[in-house]
UniProtKB/TrEMBL annotation:
It is found in: Cell membrane. Keywords: Cell membrane, Membrane, Transmembrane, Transmembrane helix. It holds the Pfam family Chromate_transp. PANTHER family: CHROMATE ION TRANSPORTER (EUROFUNG). The chain crosses the membrane at residues 12-32, 77-99, 111-132, 144-175, 195-216, 228-246, 289-314, 326-346, 358-383. Belongs to the chromate ion transporter (CHR) (TC 2.A.51) family. It comes from the Bacteria. NCBIfam families: 2A51. InterPro entries: Chr_Tranpt_l_chain, Chromate_transpt. One of its GO terms (molecular function) is chromate transmembrane transporter activity. It comes from Shouchella lonarensis. The lineage of its organism: Bacteria, Bacillati, Bacillota, Bacilli, Bacillales. It is a multi-pass membrane protein. This is Chromate transporter. One of its GO terms (cellular component) is plasma membrane.
């Protein structure tokens, strides 16, 4: 396969995921796992789990960062860019269109959206089962996953996941080094450490330099870019956390009224792809399509810089036994966190009636036991959701 063919493959697959990955960050990771690990085998279970754990530690959109990382691993820097564009542009396009039709476009009320949410339940459940088998093979790690699940559900705070993973990493570094039975499969990240250091320098330079530049120039475009960049750089916990931060940045100042903001919030919940694309809607409402594209660039730029900055050093650090032990602990905790997310908000907001559970069970069996492809399950979800809306 030539390099061009590989890039086209990355774009085709990431774009298909961008059109079909409904359900939020956890569902996105499940779709990625199904496509990139189970089907394509671009990376193994352990490498994927480590990439997910690392991106959970970083601020920004974790699922987008995982997608960028996989693209870079597969096709270099250009592969990461193409993977990001493919996964992101479908929802950006829809939200840009929605920004000009906020009074007449009611995506959140469509019946097929509920069917796609049922598909998300099925895909996440499948991924969680597979990851649990691989990452929690003994009672000690099962107990760690159970603790993570319990704490995540009972202590619902943005910092919960970070605290849990730090504790799990420390526990793993102390007690799991004896469980390392195989050498970690090498992640061949085609970016130098020098380039990584430059990316990290740019990340912090923009974070602290943009506010200063705005003070010196008073240019509105600088303030516009800085608000979205800051949101993407400082948010831990995924897309749901960035929404209130953006509300605080733009609604009180009068840049956008609350009703328009909430309309965009509802549309963002209904479209596939990362929730950070809400920035495209806000930017378009305030400054047209150019504003929407600039806002999208600003809010996702920190994710790019962090992934490209951290991963070159990660390939070196992950070889250390203590680091590998820490990863075993973090991976077990991630299983618990994913199970908690499967319950709330995915299950609680989707399985509302007996027929929802029956439909989910049928789709689960078709996916897991009959081995039907994911895109067929998505199609059935759309048809079934529309059918249930008419009943």
């Amino acid at each position: 396969m030539t390099y061009l063919q590989r890039l086209l493959e990355i774009f085709f697959i990431s774009t298909r995921l961008g059109f079909t990955s409904f359900g939020g960050p956890v569902a996105h990771l499940a779709y990625f796992h199904t496509e990139y690990v189970r089907r394509r085998k671009w990376l193994d279970e352990q490498s994927y789990a480590e990439l997910v754990a690392l991106c959970q530690f970083l601020p920004g959109p974790a699922s987008s960062q995982v997608g960028i990382g996989i693209g870079v691993l597969r096709g270099g820097l250009l592969g990461g860019i193409i993977s990001f564009l493919g996964f992101t542009f479908p929802s950006v396009l829809v939200l840009l269109l929605f920004a000009s039709m906020t009074q007449t476009f009611h995506l959140g009320e469509a019946g097929f959206i509920h069917g796609l949410k049922v598909v998300a339940v099925v895909v996440v459940a499948h991924a969680v089962i597979g990851m649990a088998e691989k990452l929690t093979p003994d009672l000690q790690r099962k107990a760690l996953a159970l603790i993570a699940l319990t704490v995540t559900l009972l202590w619902a705070a943005p910092a919960t996941q970070i605290v849990l993973m730090v504790i799990a990493a420390l526990y793993g570094a102390l007690f799991f080094t004896s469980k390392i039975t195989t050498e970690a499969s090498p992640l061949k990240f085609p970016v130098s450490r020098r380039f990584g250091a430059i990316c990290l320098s740019m990340f912090f330079g923009l974070l602290f330099g943009l506010p200063l530049l705005h003070q010196l120039t008073s240019l509105e475009v600088v303030a516009f870019f800085e608000r979205f960049y800051r949101a993407g750089a400082l948010v831990f916990g995924g897309g749901h956390v960035v929404l209130p931060l953006l509300e605080q940045s733009f609604v009180p100042t009068g840049a956008i009224d609350e009703a328009t903001f909430l309309a965009g919030y509802g549309a963002t919940q209904a479209v596939p792809g990362p929730l950070f694309t809400f920035a495209a809607y806000l930017g378009a409402v305030m400054n047209g399509w150019a504003g929407g594209l600039l806002a999208t660039l600003a809010i996702f730029l920190p994710a790019f810089l962090l992934v490209l900055g951290v991963l070159p050093f990660w390939t070196m650090l992950r070889k250390h036994p203590k680091i590998q032990g820490a990863l075993l602990g973090v991976n077990a905790a991630v299983v618990g966190i994913l199970i908690a997310a499967l319950y709330n908000p995915i299950w609680t907001s989707t399985i509302l009636q007996t027929r929802d559970f029956v439909f989910a069970a049928i789709l689960f069996c078709l996916l897991v036991y009959w081995k039907w492809p994911a895109w067929v399950i998505v199609g059935l979800g759309i048809v079934g959701g529309m059918g249930m809306a008419w009943m």
